[in-house]
Amino acid sequence: MSGPQPSIHAALLRLDARKIETVFGDFELTAFRNLAVQRECFALHVGDVQTGAPLLARVHSSCVTSEFYGACDCDCAAQLDGALEAIAAEGRGILFYLAQEGRGAGLTAKARDRMMVQASRQRLTTFEAYEQMGFPPDMRRYEEVAAMANLLGIRAPFVLLSNNPDKAASLEREKLRIDRLQPIEHAPSPFNVHYLAAKRRTGHVLADAPEMLDAELPMAVETVEPAPLPGAPSLVRLARYLLPVCGRRGSVHGVRSSHTEGPVWLCLHLYVDTHSGAEVVVLTLGEDDSRAPLVHLQAETHLDRLPLRSAPGRESWLQAATRMVSVGAGVVVSGPEPPRGVVDEARQEEISMALFHHHLGGRPALIFPSQDGRELGRRLGARGVVTESVESATDRRSPA
Q1: How many angstroms separate the CA atoms of 110 and 102, rounded?
Q2: Which residues pair with 388 in a beta bridge?
Q3: How far apart are CA 234 and CA 80, in angstroms?
């Protein structure tokens, strides 16, 4: 099925197909574009998916915080990895990856949900936060799955890797046949036990969690209302909450502090550029500290979220996160990804520089001694920010 000609079903256009190498084995990736909403989705599959025997399948919705940044306050990345591992072991199966952040309500809803839950000191659940914001519990839609199955020639019933009976019912409404549900569960942690308990109470097939206290937040979180960024009114802050980051793909790629046990708490700030509609993530550490923070401009794509054997984007983020933890302060701006169209380079520059300037708060900046780092330092220096190589600063601070 490699190298197919473009084809279309409803509003879904099939694009290219190529082999990709994951840590669980090789898959074929077929990319699609939904022309009605101008977003991409893709399918990862192994074996002959066109035969009539029940097909092991996962329908997965995106989660940038766990899949790319390595957060451990949900089970999304664990389910993604577990499903791909199960499919690879079976030798035949498919994973449909949908760009449906925040149960289909979007990244802003997800970020404000987490902020509201933390501000309530876990008295609110994720579903109650959605209700307060005016959203239904789940806004995901599955027409894209039916269209992808049609374009890939899949007629078999699904052995659905999911804990959610409602998902099976929603897929059946799209005329997809479900042979049975096969749970995909992972042990809870203090960082996601509250989230998983809320899922269990709404019908997800999850085992009763062991007695476990929620992780204690390192600082109080307050609900913020939308507000323009001082000096850049087209950038509106929508949310601010704490993100426990434990890395990606287990301890090998973990982000750890040499001074503390367990995940590192970063502060996630979410902005929207009202000119383009792009949502921009800023991750900070030690923002109230006087130390010079490490600065980094991070690009991210959906493919960076997969457990690939080689993932330069994710490795770049992990290197930056590990170094900012060792420094004790950092500001990372994740490049804008507009829902429609393209943000031009000049606008990208304006957005990122405004956000760095705001979150640096007059402090000097530490930069990576790399081509990208030096270029970022040059651009910040042109705007009056004092910069220094992180290696030089480390050498200067080290005892003789």
Answers
A1: 5
A2: 366
A3: 35
Distance from the first to the final alpha carbon of the chain: 62
Within the chain, all domains assigned CATH 3.40.50.10990 are found at 7-100+140-185, 228-397
Q: Please, what sign has the CA dihedral across residues 370, 376, 378, 384?
A: negative
Q: What is the CATH number of domain 228-397?
A: 3.40.50.10990
The residue type found at 253 is H
Distances (CA, A) of 397 to 7, 290, 368, 370, 391: 59, 15, 16, 20, 10
For the whole model, what pTM was predicted?
0.92
Enter the DSSP assignment of 218.
S
Kindly give the pairing relationship between strand 93-98 and strand 158-161.
Answer: unpaired
Q: pLDDT tens, 36-77?
A: 998 999 999 999 999 999 999 999 999 999 999 999 999 999
Of 105, 65, 123, residue with least CA distance to 268: 65
pLDDT digits (tens, 9 = 90+) for 293-338: 999 999 888 899 999 999 898 999 999 999 999 999 999 999 655 5
Which 8-state DSSP code applies to residue 217?
Answer: P
CATH top-level class for 7-100+140-185? alpha beta
What residues are annotated to the active site? 138, 140
Do residues 313 and 321 make contact, with C-beta atoms less than 8 angstroms apart?
no
Whether 14 contacts 8, CB under 8 Å: yes
Do the Cβ atoms of 214 and 198 come closer than 8 Å? no
Contact, 56 vs 82, CB < 8 A?
no
362: left (phi over 0), alpha (psi -120 to 50) or beta: left
Helix axes 312-327, 390-397, angle to 10 degrees: 30
Alpha helices (runs of H) in 120-237, residue ranges in sequence order? 126-133, 143-151, 165-173, 193-201
Residue with tokens 């802050």: 237
Q: Which two tokens stand for residue 185?
A: 């569960």
